[in-house]
Amino acid sequence: MTKPLTAPIIDGRIIDGKAIAAALRAEIAVKVSAAGFTPGLAVVLVGENPASTVYVRTKDRAAREAGIAARTIRLPADTTQAVLLATIEALNGDDTIDGILVQLPLPKGIDSQAVIAAIDAAKDVDGFHPTNVGHLADGRPGLVPCTPLGVMKLLRATGVEISGARAVVLGRSAIVGRPMARLLLAADATVTIAHSRTRDLPAECRRADILIVAVGRPEIVRGDWIQPGATVIDVGINRLPDGRLVGDVAFDECAGIAGAITPVPGGVGPMTVACLLENTLTAALLRRCL
Ligand code: NDP
Questions:
Q1: CATH number, domain at 245?
Q2: Distance separating alpha carbons of residues 83 and 174, to the nearest angstrom
Q3: Overall domain count for the chain
Q4: Pocket mutation for ligand 1, best pick of 173, 201, 273 (most atoms within 8 Å of C-beta)
Q5: Which of 29, 115, 119, 197 is most buried (CB neighbours < 10 A)?
Q6: End-to-end Cα spacing for the chain
Q7: 268 lines ligand 1 (CB under 6 A)
Q8: Which CATH number belongs to the domain containing residue 112 in this structure?
Q9: Does residue 251 fall inside a structural domain?
Q10: How would you write the pLDDT of the chain (290 residues) with one tens digit per residue?
Q11: What pTM did the predictor assign?
Q12: At 206, phi and psi to the nearest 5?
């Protein structure tokens, strides 16, 4: 069951990710200015995938606004894996850089796993390096993927009781679903992971006090999949043929049933960027043993 909601939430039900992210970014800016040094973030973009280009610009701007020195390294689409690995090696050895993020997806022919594994785990602000994945799986401290980290912060902002709650994570990707489930487990939720082979998806979702949806299928979750009062977090971002941006949850059907729900856009998306900044500051402090 959800607890009464706290600010900054609008309408008592809609979780205002934009406002919560803005508050987090402001908090990070204060911590950065008090840190006595300037954290450095390097974002590596290979090729000109339009969505990736927009994401990288957003991250770069947000980092600068928080007082983080952001550097975007743009490499042509025909960059070889060897050149990309050499770029990462140079960033690993660059003492002004605390965080390294390689924007995914990478062009065909480049082995993403090998690239991620080449990043110094202490600078892996995306939390995708096998060492950080292992720490999360073990419930040990480490750098955690930004989107699931942002979801946990949204849940905490709603005041929902996570400990003991039945949480269902729809989607099992390495980037969202799996780390999400691990974070919920670490917060003492009883976690179910559902996916494309799950037998009765609506029934699994209806059991959830907390439902996290990260599938990439426009509005797959319908109103009758939601337990009344449940907290629903929609990670999905889908562009419809008519240009509209929608989530994985049919918002209009679910908003009146859920106890709290994120909109798309303005829910999880802004938290992902804010958590990247937080991870950069965390990495910077840890590297300096502060
Ligand atoms: P992936 O495609 O990597 O994974 C999708 C998952 O959903 C898989 O586990 C898949 O199951 C499952 N799935 C797919 N179709 C169905 C179905 N019909 N029924 C049940 N399960 C299904 O996606 P991501 O995790 O990377 O992203 C998910 C969504 O989140 C996307 O819309 C993406 O754009 C968005 N996203 C948003 C972010 C943000 O900042 N807001 C950040 C990252 C992603 P199986 O494993 O069985 O194939």
A1: 3.40.50.720
A2: 25
A3: 2
A4: 173
A5: 119
A6: 39
A7: yes
A8: 3.40.50.10860
A9: yes
A10: 434 444 445 455 999 999 999 999 999 999 999 999 999 999 999 999 999 999 999 999 999 999 999 999 999 999 999 999 999 999 999 999 999 999 999 999 999 999 999 999 999 999 999 999 999 999 999 999 999 999 999 999 999 999 999 999 999 999 999 999 999 999 999 999 999 999 999 999 999 999 999 999 999 999 999 999 999 999 999 999 999 999 999 999 999 999 999 999 999 999 999 999 999 999 999 999 87
A11: 0.95
A12: -65, -20
